[in-house]
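Follow-up to my post from last week.
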Amino acid sequence: DTGVSQNPRHKITKRGQNVTFRCDPISEHNRLYWYRQTLGQGPEFLTYFQNEAQLEKSRLLSDRFSAERPKGSFSTLEIQRTEQGDSAMYLCASSLVHGTGGAGYTFGSGTRLTVV
Amino acid sequence: DAKTTQPNSMESNEEEPVHLPCNHSTISGTDYIHWYRQLPSQGPEYVIHGLTSNVNNRMASLAIAEDRKSSTLILHRATLRDAAVYYCILPIQGAQKLVFGQGTRLTINP
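User reply:
Got it. Predicted complex:
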């Protein structure tokens, strides 16, 4: 297992189009997270799954955003009717439940979305 | 999550030690201190974490103040590949997510 894989690495789309990103986590990790990062800012939490259950969604996740993790394996993040403000790096991470709460997260390299 | 304060940026020279500070005056007794870093065009990567005692690993050392209100990430011999944004994070016990601040942008001069 080579880590968390995200596809595509880059996506350019026209405003109003729908886009879907995929994340393949580390196979034994039961938690999967989506973050969004804009230029000069730290990553912002969007949502997370434990196995196939989506357990938390940020207020940042408007109703145009939907995430799934069928069968508790890979995950997809879909953005409908994209807006220019959606332009950002979308990061996926996976982890096992850890007693420290914060160690052992592995991030992918992200999908950079540009909405024109 | 407990709030952390880090300098926006720091600069150092190659092959010299780097001390990255983090203040966390509202830390509770059960909060671990975590450090992640983000290289250019990459996702964040785990660096180190600790609770009370100083910690060492192959990447860095973490020095934790006796009152735990501050900590310092130490890179013993910086290389150009250490240029990154370094995040100090205090997840609460059983936290379901990491919450990132602005971090410290570290520049390494050749």
